[in-house]
Structure formats: C-alpha cells, structure tokens
Amino acid sequence: MNIFGMEFKVEKLEKEKGLALYLTANRNFYRYSWEDYSFIAIELSENEKFGSVALQKQKSIYEQHFSSDICYVFTCLTNQQRDVLVEKIIPFICFPNHLYLPFLGIMMSNRFKKKKRVNVEKMMPATQCLFLYLMYNREDHPIKKSFAAKKLNLTKTTITRASSQLVEMKLIREENHGTEIYMIPLYRGKTLYEKALPYLVNPIQKKVYVRQYNSDLCFLSGESALAQKTMLNHPKIQEYAIDKKKINQDELIEIDVQWENSDNVVLIQLWKYDPSLFSVNGVVDPISLAMTYKDNYDERIMGELETYLEEYEW
C-alpha cells in the first residue's frame, strides 16, 4: 500500500494476548511495514462509539504493548472528530482523504464521508445479488469489494450500498486493507441462508405469457426448475427467467393463455437481477427459486421445495 510515496506491506495480526478485552473486541490489528520501519494500525468497528479521551489513554497502552508507533483506522469521521484527534495528537487514518501520522507525515482534506442511513427491512435487488455471490462462494477467504463489483457488473456506488445493507443486516462484516475493502460473511452455508431469509425478496418483477420464445438468456425457473430437481411433475407450460434489463420488453407480445394451445406457450419471468450469474446447467439457483415462491401457499409446491432445499449441499 502506498503512503506518502512509500510502499508499505500490510499484515493482519492475530488478536493480541496480554491486552484487556475492551482493547481487542471488534477491533482489527494490522502491521504496516516499509524497509526497517513499521507501525501498528488499529481498525475500529464502524458501530463503535469512541471518545478522544479514551482513545488517547488506549494509545499509550497500545504503544507500550507493541513497542511501536500506533494509529487508529476509521471508516468515516466528521470535521469535529478529525480536529479533536489532531488537537490531542492521536494518529489516525481515514482513507482516502485523511492521514494524520505525525511520525510519518500528514495529509488532510475538506472532504468527509457521510454515514448514510441504511434500509434493513428488505434487500435491494443488487444486495440480494451480492448476497448470493457471497453465499455460493465456496472459498473460505475474504472477498474484495472491487472484485465482486466486477464479477456482478455493479458500479462502485451500488456495491457500496449493497455491502452496507448486508453489514447492517449482520450478515457480513467489512475489513479495510489499505485502500481495499474486503467482505467476510459472518456465517456459512445453510446458517447464512437462514439468517438472511427474513430479508430476501422475490426476484420476479413481472410474469408474461408469450408464444414460444427461444433465447440463450433464459433459464428454467418456477415449476419447470423445481421439476428438474424434485419429483414434481413437469408443468404443461414451461417457465423461464430472464434479466429484465437484457430483453426488449416490446418484443414480448403478451397473450391470453386460455385462447392458445399450451404447446405453443411459455411463461417468462422478468427478474430484477440477472439469473445467469448463479444458474447451473440452465436452471436458476435454489435460493432465488425458493424466493419466487415466497408468497405461495400451495402445499404440493412447498413440500417439494422444502425437500429440495433440505437435500441441497450447502
């Protein structure tokens, strides 16, 4: 990581022994090293309430324990908080605009991040998309936010909002490694799904009956998908999902299914996010499929869906 023209190596430290619990709880510790010099950066939780007097006292304890210069890392600061920290000579980093490191250098800006209120009632489509990406990721390591944004074709602003929602829903946590932000699920597998269940939404925006429609952008969904995975009988009318942004809806000429031969009809689900991101072998992913039935009370359907999810390898 580049600080004042020096390329620092950033190493995350394990929780330090010999420190009181209040000095380590919900805090991450990093060693920044450049040539023969290093200092310790202590990242405070975004939800932690802090005061300058307490931080000043803790700074002395940390310096003695690590035998090193130390600084605090904040995700956001107000103008007043920054000025008080500087007044009390408490080193800190608040990327990308504020670096107050008296032992190394100082960089200040009049730009401040505002902490926005986050809706935690239901996931936005982009949030659900990000959640599914993290859910289905089998690798046990933090996911770089910029990497996820590229994979999901989301803008920096959208991925930030989506990640913030998941943090507020207590499904993931974020870690700052230099200028990069990493996302870490707080649970794994089925437990993560169950914790997220109250927030998940139906991905379907609209359903349209049309005459036969062939497209590589369509994926089996609804009863057609469930029949592929369970003992459910295949429906007379095939059901497909497609990203609403990837189709010209004017091309979908809606028909009255009661006046058509069912052999010539398909049901198109227009989704709020791209089903292709998580589909396997032409079938939509199990969580999204389950959410399409969130308000369904058909015992036959719900029984097969429950069996499918129970047997799924989380």
Helix and strand run:
EEEEEHEHEEEHEHHEEHEEHEEHH
β content, as a range?
A: 15-25%
Mean pLDDT across every amino acid position: 90
Number of strands: 16
- Report, as a whole number of angstroms, the end-to-end distance: 36 Å
Question: What structural class do the secondary elements suggest?
Answer: alpha+beta
The order of strands across the largest sheet is 3-4-5-6-7-8-9
* Biggest sheet descriptor: 7 strands, mixed
pLDDT < 50 runs, ≥5 residues:
none
Number of domains: 3
Number of helices: 9
For the CA atoms, what is the radius of gyration? 25 Å
Shape: elongated
Helix content: 25-40%
Q: Which features would summarize this protein structure in a list?
A:
alpha+beta, 16 strands, Arc Repressor Mutant, subunit A, Trna Endonuclease, Chain: A, domain 1, 314 residues, elongated, seven-stranded mixed sheet, 9 helices, four-stranded mixed sheet
Describe the 3D structure:
By secondary structure, the chain is an alpha+beta fold. It folds into 3 domains: 2-107, Trna Endonuclease, Chain: A, domain 1 (3-Layer(aba) Sandwich), CATH 3.40.1350; 125-199, Winged helix-like DNA-binding domain superfamily/Winged helix DNA-binding domain (Arc Repressor Mutant, subunit A, Orthogonal Bundle), CATH 1.10.10; 204-311, no CATH class. The protein is built from 9 helices and 16 strands. It has helices spanning 52-66, 79-87, 125-136, 145-152, 156-168, 189-196, 222-229, 286-292, 299-311, and strands spanning 2-3, 6-7, 9-13, 28-34, 37-43, 69-73, 92-94, 98-101, 105-107, 143-144, 172-177, 180-185, 204-211, 219-220, 238-243, 265-271. It has a 7-stranded mixed β-sheet with strand order 3-4-5-6-7-8-9, covered by helices on one side. A hairpin with a 2-residue loop joins strand 4 and strand 5 (37-43). Helix 3 crosses helix 5 and helix 4 packs across helix 5 (156-168). The longest helix has 15 residues, at 52-66. The relative contact order is 0.09. The mean pLDDT is 90.
